[in-house]
Amino acid sequence: MINLAVIGIGNWGKNWLRSVGESKKARLYACCDSDKNRLILPSKKYPKTTFTHDVKDIIKNEKINGIIIATSAPTHFKIAKEAIKSGKHVLIEKPFVLKSAHAKELIAIAKTNKRVLMVGHLLRYHPGIIKLKSIIENGKLGNIYYISSQRVNLGKIRKDENALWSFAPHDISTILYLMNKRPFGVNAIGSAYIQRKIEDVVFLNLHFRNRKMAHVHMSWLDPHKIRQTVVVGSKKMAVFDDMEPTDKLKIYDKGVSYNGRFLSYQEAIRLREGKVSAPSIKMEEPLKRECNHFIDCGTKRKIPNTDGKEGLEVVRVLEGAQKSLKQKGAFVNLD
Ligand SMILES: NC(=O)c1ccc[n+]([C@@H]2O[C@H](COP(=O)([O-])OP(=O)(O)OC[C@H]3O[C@@H](n4cnc5c(N)ncnc54)[C@H](O)[C@@H]3O)[C@@H](O)[C@H]2O)c1
Hints:
Distance between the termini: 43 Å
Order of helices and strands: EHEHEHEHEHEHEHEEEEEEHEHHE
Strand content: 25-35%
Shape: globular
Radius of gyration: 21 Å
Structural class: alpha/beta
Helix content: 25-40%
Bound molecules: nicotinamide-adenine-dinucleotide
Low-confidence stretches: none
Mean pLDDT: 96
């Protein structure tokens, strides 16, 4: 049994309390939030857990083996650094950190201290995304041409980070996983309508070798809630729609074949409008799977699927995209 603490019990941290609280392999040993009001309700729900408003109480408590950091993004680096140095395994919510230099520093400290460093890229633990990856690896979609992703809704409007840093970590992590490649460059445009210099809407392009590309549209200023990833391959196409209650992944036997230049237009280009199928997926809550993976890695000293290195790759893309945003969409080389 491993003793875990959750730091940051806001909108999302509450889900972590539930996940750790329900785990049979971990004890919800302590919780911390600098806002004392946020401690009142959970302390009634979890009477055996210690509650504090001071992070130092968690850091210096030797009985705590691992920490989940679900505080606001600018605080992640400092809390994680102190936690790892004091011998704790750490899971940091997205966005991992705000600078790749910080990501590198945490990776090095975790290595020296032999601690687990994991990043909360939730979709990597989603059974639908894992299934999509296996379908791509089995070659069923053919050669992947491009991926297009949408993460839009109304709110939550953040003040510490723009829509890029708030939403895109999920999509970038998924795209890198599905493409199995690093982009050599990015460009992004966006606009701040509500708060000064905090973009509410961002359109991001990732450029890969061999004409592959990906696009992410993120916004907290949109009438629809959309969580969708479309993968277009040379043989088939796939749509992962996390808003669907069931059949979240669909495979479209659709495509276009080109037969050569010397035929008439109709003969040269053939559209294939085949069947749509929904592969069977054993659903399990992604956060529960992520939580179990962290516990497993902490107990058995395994390297997480979303370790610090994976987190660094995502931060590199975010940094490049932020630079491009400032330069009104200029191409930023990541090589
Ligand atoms: N994985 C996901 O799908 C997902 C979804 C939503 C949010 N998140 C991430 O989770 C984190 C928290 O988001 P949220 O929506 O819960 O934000 P929130 O503002 O609702 O909650 C953050 C909490 O952290 C507390 N806090 C801030 N600094 C602290 C410190 N130094 N010590 C102790 N407590 C501190 C605040 O008082 C607040 O209660 C963010 O990094 C966010 O991006 C992840």
